[in-house]
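Can anyone check this?
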Amino acid sequence: MRMRRHLTVTFLFSVTLLCSAQQSKPPALNDAVRAYIAQHRQDILREFEEFLAIPNVASDRDNIQKNAEALSSMLKKRGLQVQLLSVENAPPVVLAAFPADSSKHTVTFYAHYDGQPVNKAEWKQDPWQPTLTSRSGTGPSANIDDPEARIYARSAGDDKNSIIELLAALDALQWSRIPPSVNLKFFFEGEEEAGSPHLATILQQYPLALRSDLWVICDGPANQNGDPQLVFGSRGVITLQLTAFGPNRPLHSGHYGNWAPNPIIELAQLVARMRTTDGEITIPHFNDPVRPMTVAEQNALKNIPNVDQQLRVEMALGRIEGHGTLAEQIMKPGLNLDRIEGGGSGPNPTNSIPSWATAYIDFRLVPNQTPEIVKQQVEDFLRVQGYFLANRPPTAEERLQHPRLLQVVWGAGYPPQRTAMEQPISQAFIAAAKTVTGNSLVLLPTLGGSTPSFLFEQQFNKPVIGLPTANYDDNQHAANENLKLKNLWDGIALFAGVFGKLEWK
C-alpha cells in the first residue's frame, strides 16, 4: 500500500513537471515570429516609413550622415553595441553587435543604407514621402493585408527594406524569448550605390571588429516566381568607355558623308565585332579563364523555376538572347552596351557627322575572370583591330597620325565571388532557411548583378552567402521604387528563422 502510494505521488509529480515544462516551453519559432509580425505591423511600418523619409542619395553627405545617426539610434534602442567605422572622405559604416558567446559562431549581416539619385519629375509621388498603395486605395485607405500592397519610396526595395527586416526579426526573437543560435553582427554601408570606393580600406582598417565566420549579403530581389532564394555568389563587373573620333568639328552629312568617318558608325561596327546579337562575347580567348560549374551548381540550375515565358510576356520581348534559360545565361560572362553618346540631341536631327562618340560598356564577370584579365584581353583585341589606344583626349597631331584611334577609359570594378554550395556552412544555411520556407526555396549559384561580396571573401577568407528579399519588380535604381509588404513580412520571418536555427560544426 505504501509502495502504491509512493508510485502514485511520483507519477503525479512527474506529470506536473511535464505539464510545467510544456507550459514554459517557448512556442515554435515560426509561429512566434508570425504572431509578433501580426501584432506589430503598424509599428514596423512606422519605423520603415520614418527611415525611408530621410533622403539618402549616396553623394548627399549631410543626409547620409543623418541616416547613419538614425540607424545608430535604431540599433542602440534594441540593446546592440554600436560602432561607427570611418575612414577619410567616406560615410561611416554602422557596425552593431551583441556581446559574443564564445561557444557560438559569428555571422555578420550586410546591407546598405544609401540609395540611388532621383529625378522627382519621373515619380508619381515624392520619393522621400513613403506612400502605401493597395487594390483598395492609397495612403490611409490602403489595406496592408492585401498581398499586392506596396510602399513606394527611394530605397524601399534597395536596400532599407533589408535593414528594417533584420531589426524586426531581432525584435521578434526578443519578444518571443528565443535566443539566436549564432552571434549576430550587423554591417550597414553608406556608399554602396557609389561603388563602395572605401569599403576595402574599411575592411582592412578594422579587422578585429569585423571578425566573423560567415558574411550574409542582404541585398537584391527574391526569385521572379515569388519564392525566396539564397544566392551563393555574384558576378564581377568592370566598366569601359570607348571614344572614337571623326572631324574636329561637326560636318554637313551631305557635303562630307561617305568621306569623313562617322565615329558613331565606327563604334557600332566595333561593338558588333565584340559581341553577337545572342549575347556571346567574340573577343578571342575571353572565356578561357572561366571556371567550370560544379556538380552542385549544375544540379541547382536544374531546379530553378523557369520564369522565362512569364518575363517575356511581362516585358513584351519578341525574342531572348542566347540558348538557355535566364538562370543559365547569368552563369556566363556578359558584355552590355549601356549607350552611345555623340552628335546632337533632341527631336530635331542636325544631319551632321559628329566630331566624337563614346560607347559606355559594362562587362559582367564570372569565376575565374578578373578585371585585370579582361582589361588586357580587350585592349589586345582593339590593337589587333588596328586601333591606337590613348588614356586621355588625343591631340590634333595624334588624330592626324592614327587612322584608327580610341580613347580608352576603364572604370572601377571588382572580381566575381562564388561560395561552394556543397560545403557544410552552405548546407547549414540552406537547412535554416528551409525551416521557414519549406521546399519553396530557390538556390541560385550566382546573382546576375554585382555586389561587393568579393571584398569580404578576399579580406577575411570566409564564405559569403546572399539572402535577398525584395520583390523582383521593385524598380530598384529607377523611378517609383517600391516594396511589396508581403516581401517585408516574409523577409522578417526568413531572417528570424536564420537567426534562430543556423548551426554548423
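Reply from J.R.: I decoded it. The radius of gyration is 27 Å.
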